[in-house]
Amino acid sequence: MMNEMPAVIEVIGLKKYFPLPRRHPGQARSQVHAVDGVSFTIGRGETLSLVGESGCGKSTVGRTILGLAKPTAGEVRLDGIRIDNLPRRKLRPLRRRMQVVFQDPYSSLNPRLRVREILAEPIANFSLAHSRAEFSARIAGLLQKVRLPADAAARFPHEFSGGQRQRIGIARALATEPEVIICDEAVSALDVSVKAQVVNLLADLQDELGLSLLFITHDLAIVEHLTHRVAVMYLGRIVEAADRDSLFTRPWHPYTQALLSAVPVPDPAASRQRMILKGDVPSPVDLPRGCRFQSRCPHVFARCRTEEPELRAVGEAQWVACHLDRRPGG
Amino acid sequence: MSEFALPEEAAALPEILPPAVRRGRVAGFVLQHPGIAIGGGLIAVMTVLALAAPWLGTVDPQSLDPANMLIVPSAGHWFGTDMLGRDIYSRVIYGTRVSLVVGFVVALLASVIGMAIGLVSGFFRALDPVLMRVMDGILAIPSILLAIALMALTQGSVGNVIVAITISQVPQVARLVRGMVLGLREQPFVEAAIAAGTRTPRLIWRHIVPNTLAPVIVQATYICAVAMIIEAILDFIGAGVPPIVPSWGNIMAEGRALWQVKPFIVFFPAFFLSVTVLAVNLLGDGLRDMLDPRLGSRK
Q: Which value does ipTM take for this structure?
């Protein structure tokens, strides 16, 4: 996929299955197909958004990139180095280059540590500071980067609001001076105004530090102003990948269209057509034959029930996994 | 990139941090946590009795005085004397030492050993099935029976009593800690620490252990209470510390035959045991209310 910018992260054919316990002896072992063949790249200084509904495997992709989960198949490369099969000891020095910000601002900070200790830990792990003064200077710098007052260092996480905690989480991610930050629903738990603050902060930090961001979210609205490219996931697969403009102006896949029609428009006069999906998401344990989206697709036809569509280019910067010849509704 | 369609004032919200929490005064603490105050106070009194036993008007708890057998409580013998003429007051006060030592040491040992097993079991999953089956096996035997059986293998001494009761109590802590470790491992702050390059020993020490401590401390107080009761039971049936040692269980065992005519022999050690166990349980309940994050610390 698109390679204008040199890739920092390459994900190739990633699969992650979780085995289910057998219900009785001799039963064939079934598995949850959480991620089922996902490939993408993130360029240096680029933002890629991974969008999809809950349970589609998007967070598992993030955890696998970070080495928090081992993939069942496929590769993850950081700057060309394959990292998914590295033993812990060899992976550790590379961890410095990619960090994570989690969704829940409460459980993502250890309640028993002061902010200073939370931020000092990654610095100490990679020996980025050696004296008390160096530590203090780095921590003060981090707090300043995320726009928290310097006296925040001496406090405990429970003394902060959700948005402030999330910025502490961002400061911790920045502490190792990473090249990539994976934001796993990083703003989903926040109020709208605070959400905007944090998104703007991330965008500013990206400009300032040249960060690459993988933005994992279910909320297309929050992504629109921040992202360069978008990959839409459904049931463990990418169904559409495109640059921002193509995706938001000419969504191709019926699922993407449905997602976009659900984004609220801040104009009460605007008339819009809601596309409401009917039907249930198939179980990721027993996947249907053919297209994964067939049970909910309004344009389903015979071929969708037998053959699984592969990603194909439908525009200069747009790829889609759908059997339809033309863009539906376009 | 960074311009987000947003009203200006939203970006400029002032950073208001709440004022630093001020420490409450003693009176406030007592009112807020009466269990800790009363239980802790009683335990403190018992500890003073145990430490200062020789200076509290006691005589040698083992000295026989056949001329003064079975005297009822009076000015000369506050709690009376037993059938060998020994001063029950002195024996009860010295008996405090045995109960407190057994209670405290068992609570400490069971917590430390149980925590170690729980951490290993929760963190190194290959060892988990083996360790937990052993713990289940111990738990399947009632702890009093297990302690009696273990004491039957050795001779009676305070050390052996402590070991026997500790073995029966370790699984409680191990299971508690293992469960918490399994939950904590999934917590985002633990995953973030792994992603930030924190090595396993430091991860356990900084992120796991401190977050398991509060429930373990509460559990330790209950173990302390149970250990004192089991110790008294072992003494009472003659499986505990040697009969010459003044312990509450021994005094009660000796007074049992005369319970109907001289009830004070059993009454005083039983009263002390009940009050001490009650105090430890009150302290445990108070600590649970204070330390449980779901009940207290978020307010």
A: 0.89
- Between A100, A126, A200, which is nearest B192 by CB? A100
The tokens of A234 are what? 């459904």
Across the interface, whether the CB atoms of B189 and A206 are under 8 A apart is answered: no
A204 and B2: CB-CB below 8 Å?
yes
Task: Write the DSSP symbol of residue A77.
Answer: E
Nearest alpha-carbon partner for B111 in B177, B39, B206:
B177
CATH number at A1-21+30-90+210-330: 3.40.50.300
Cα separation of B18 and A96, whole Å? Answer: 33
A192 Cβ neighbours under 8 A, 6+ residues apart: none
CATH architecture of B33-297: Orthogonal Bundle (1.10)
Q: What is the pTM of this model?
A: 0.83
- Find residue B269's DSSP bridge partners: none
Q: Is residue B102 within 8 Å of B248, Cβ to Cβ?
A: no
Q: DSSP 3-state assignment of A258?
A: helix
Question: Which pLDDT value is given to residue B297?
Answer: 42
- Taking residues A67-91, what's their average pLDDT? 92
* Chain B interface test: which of A110, A156, A244 (most B C-beta within 10 Å): A110
Q: What is the residue whose two structure tokens read 């064939």?
A: A28
Which of the residues B9, B15, B186, B211 would you substitute to probe the A interface, choosing the one with the greatest number of A C-beta atoms within 10 Å?
Answer: B15
Q: Residue ranges per domain, chain B? A: 33-297
Maximal C-alpha separation, chain B: 100
More confident residue, B43 or A55: B43
Burial class (CB in 10 A: 0-12, 13-18, 19+), A263: middle
**Closest CB from A66, A155, A200 relative to B11:** A200
Helical (H) or strand (E) element with A10 = strand A7-19
CB distance B103 to B256 below 8 Å: no
Out of A126, A155, A199, the one facing B197 most closely (by C-beta) is A126
Nearest-angstrom CA–CA distance, B111 and B115: 6
pLDDT score for A274: 76
* Cβ-based neighbour number of residue A17 at 10 Å: 18
**Minimal-distance CA residue of chain A relative to B17:** A160
Three-state helix/strand/coil letters over B262-295: CCHHHHHHHHHHHHHHHHHHHHHHHHHHHHCHHH
pLDDT for the residue numbered A110: 93
Beta bridge partners of A191: none
**Average pLDDT of span A109-129:** 94
Residues of B in contact with A93 (CB under 8 A): 197
CB atoms within 10 A of CB A226: 22
Picking from B187, B197, B210, the nearest residue to A95 by CB comes out as B197
pLDDT at B294 exceeding the cut of 70 = no
